[in-house]
Amino acid sequence: MSKMIQTASGFQYSVNIEYDLHNTEKLGNFIPTRSSLSLLEDILDSTQNSATNRARILIGAYGKGKSHIVLTILSLLMKKNRDLFVHLNEKLQENNRLSALLKNYYSGKVKLLPVVISGNSTSLHQAFIFSLQKTLSDNNLMDVMPETNYAAAIKTIQKWEKDYPQTFKTFAKGINGTVKAFIEKLQDFDVNAYRQFEQVYPELTAGSIFNPFVGFDVVDLYESVAKALKRTSKWTGLYVVYDEFSKYLEANISTASVSDTKMLQDFAEKCSRSGDTQMHLMLISHKEIANYIDQLPKQKTDGWRGISERFEHVLLNNNFTQVYEIISSVIKKKPADWNRFKKSQNKKFDDLFAIYCNHSLFNEMKPDEVQKLLLDCYPLHPVSVFILPRLSEQIAQNERTLFTFLSAQGHSTLSAFLSGYDDSNFKLVTPDLLFDYFEQLFKKEIYNNEIRDVYLLANRALEKIGKKKILECKIIKTLCLLYILQQFEKIKPVKEEIFHIYKNEYTEEDILLAIDNLVEKEFVVYLRQSNSYLKLKESSGVDIEKTINDEIERQRSKFDLCDVLNEFNTSAYLYPSRYNDKYEMTRWFDFIFVSDKEFLEDTDWQNRYAERDSDGQVIAVVLGGKNSAKKIRTLVEQVSVAQRQILFVVPSQFKEIESTAKKYSAVYALREKSHGDSALEDEYQVVIDDLSEVLYGFVADYIRAERNASSYIYCGEDACISRKSELSEKLSEICENIYSKAPIIKNEAINKNSPTTVMENAREKVISALLRNELEYNLGLTGTGPDVFIMRSVLINTGLLINEKNDVRLNFDFQKKDDVAVVKPIVDALQWFVNNAAEKNKASFGALYRRLTSPSGKIGMRKGIIPIFIAAFLHCHKRSISIHNEYGTVEISAQTLNQINKNPDSYTLTYISWDSTKEKYIHDMKTLFGQWLTPYEMKSLEIDGLFAAMNRWYFDLPKYTKEIYSKANPKKTNQVFVDFLNLFTQNVSCEEILFERIPMVFTGKPSCGENVLTKLSDAKKDIDDSIIRLKQLLLDITRNVFANQPVKKASVPSICKEWTKKLDKNVSDNVFDDGITDRMLNLFYQNMSDESKFIEGLAEILTGLRIVDWNFNTIDSFKNKLKECKKTAENYKETDTRNQDNSYRLSFTDEMGRESTKTFSKVDLTPRSRLLFNKMEDALNTMGQALSVAEKRQVVVDILQKMCGENN
Fold first, then answer.
1. C-alpha–C-alpha distance, residues 917 and 1091, integer Å
2. pLDDT tens digit sequence for 1137-1156
3. Cα end-to-end distance, the chain, whole Å
4. Whole-model pTM?
5. 31-140+215-315: CATH topology
6. Which domain of life is it from (predicted)?
């Protein structure tokens, strides 16, 4: 045990304001800091009667000494003997103003009574009232009662009289005199009467104590007490302190009542206005109130914010230099022994000074101050001195703080260390001991996930390596603390720092061997490649390095350095900011890594990136070797001369990155494969994070011009870029040169290549309005939606649309002097496109899009606005153009323009040159096919509407008609008509069919004269009448089959009905096996006068098809079936069926009582019909008792009746 070094015992227990308020020893141990002195000065100022800042919230982490500071201040406000404040008196000599304030306070009349509120009470009302009552009781001041005490007693008596008469009678017997006289004494504030009431109250209420404060306003109650104190005692006011207020917030902030929060707010306001009847309030918290209200509903959040604003916030941020002084004051040394020890260990102290006097740990202090600190804080290692207050600030709780570590007894404390300390040896408290002491708090840490995660990682590492490897365990614990603090600018977790910490106990060889063991054998520490940091990691038990090297070998054949860099780079796009601001759009340049080998080959840079959506490229050249920089720069300068869209970046010198990229690619792939194994995945992630920093640095040499690590080459010259802003400016200059004719469209939501669905729908409305025959005011759009915004920004603001009430038109006549002539290059491109179509008969939309979007046209339009300009131009040319894709003519509509926008090369524009002959020809065609034209198409000048109507006519033709006019019909048909209908099956443009092919079919010449219309009209009539001719043919066939010579002039239904009279009288009762004859007879028995309907019905019965669905062979089938059914009916004899054993006779009676009988022959079941029988029987059985036998029977009979031709 050390006799030379001891710790001040007064610090071994944390301060509890309520219990230590009269503990004079605590006052002597108080070591003031600047923060505490400043707070004391502010509070003394607030004791002036005119002061208004009397509500405070004191905020500071655990271990900051908040309670000790407040305890001292309260003791001063109570005017305790100033000799008790040993350390404070020393500091007062250095602060004249504070010394004068304290002197004036002690000599003045003001003396404040502390009321300490503590605990986790769920009710602020209860906590405030209980603490006030306890304070008055502890100070023998219960006689100094607020008026509310007497009023409460009177109110209670009156309540007994009204609601509890038995209790009231008992009370009347237990007092001296009458109840009325007793109440009068209470009204006169008779103390004896009140005491008697307090004595009687428990007897009447099962032993409870009378609480006069229940039901009264807390703020008024405190004010009343303060007034009474001032009037009748030595105290002139109250100083209320809510200790551990943060615990109340943690437990109750979400459930706190409105009355509690209002009370706290009212109390703060009352304190600030209390004047000479002084009331002060101080809340002590570990964090700001705002830190507790993140998850609350808005109403409660606003309420607590209102409370917070009523308090002056005092942040207790002690300067760590002052904390070091406190640490040194706790560690006591015997001067004689200490001086001898310093002399004997002079060399070791000098080594310590050499390392840490100028170390970044203490860079805010002078070397001589550091030297004094290290001596005063011995045996704490300098790193332990640095860590201890910061760690205490982050995680300390009342039971474990900086002070308890230094002075308390127990495991892993400084006292425990000193108990085994030999005064003759130089031994230091290293950070691992701090880890051991605070470990219990690490385990309970719930508010800081990062601290908990680091600790758990360290704990698993400790469990893996075991306790026997002492040095390795110490290193892990130290690394854990360094990563919890994360103050790497002060102390880095590197080998050198670990060596400095443990060099006093271990040799350099032992320390390095222990680190290597943790890295290479235990796999719990990773040595970062980017900064040489030692980092704790999860150990999966896998040899990570070997696995990575194996994966590198597997990837060797397909590895590409530039591909890895391009995938890794998060700054893949660079923006010309000034240009984008000016033109109100977003252009960007792709940032692409390219190998220097490509400059040694014949690369087509002009077209290499033509398919990209970007407006240009920034090519970062990756050097392949140390000696290639100068040669590659020369080649880049030569190549760049012709590349106006590309800015080349060449590094000043070679930097090896391939090995890092290979490792990154391998680890990334391994991590993807390790999904499901969280430990292994985390281990790979540690490596990825490290390698990412190296790759980030490599990429930054190209992108961050201020690093001066690369040169920027444009058009063969050095662009002289040394700042990020200059790089962006250069890209703006490039854009202004390449896209000098770009329009300024003040609507970036549509002025992009891929607008949102909402904007596409809005654009579709605008396009549809532009494609109408007549333009409406505002294009018929209303409101303030995105469609109106598009119309104004793209059409009106550019001058393309004249939008006056009586003058709505499109304007394509731009003069150069016009400000809005920015769209003239677009109009010129559209006119070129139409002219090209007129000259060559058709033109591809792909050519137009390339001219509008590519750099060669200097416009560089975004595809989002192109359909709008096309629609505007088509509006003026609708009569003369048509649009086609690979399947033929398509409608000129918003949907079509949207499809063109997605794939312009799949669509072409055809231009028509009109003359009077063509106009008359189209007019007559519309008259001919007017029945199939919509009202819009009838008015429209477009020919695609006419052709669409002709197609509708063609598709409406019956199948029979198309069959007989097809080339497959072997019977002789007018070949011209066949060729005409065949045109509708060809994938040809509408204008070619209308103006060339139809005339060729009818006249043999591609000329649309009157003769064409005459022949076309005749052909159409012949085709339309095909069904009528078919019906007449069938009527003639039926007449010939059933009529005798004399009655051929009669109607066919009459002839057929007359024929039925010749049949057996019971033939109508028979159901024939063919299933057709009886149905034909039923038709014949009907009184039908309409031959057309009659023949349609007969045809469908005999063939199973409607006439319109026939082909050219169905007529023969009809004729044969008709003859067969006639023969079957004529051969029927009732006696035949009656004499047959294998026949059936069924009788059905309808609702009117009329009976009908059906007979039919029995037939043998085929395998297929047997299958039907089994299924029907199985279906009936499956229903079970869900249906009765009668219901099942009825179903079968209904089916049978229907099959016999009877209506059920």
1. 45
2. 555 556 666 666 667 666 56
3. 116
4. 0.57
5. Rossmann fold (3.40.50)
6. Bacteria
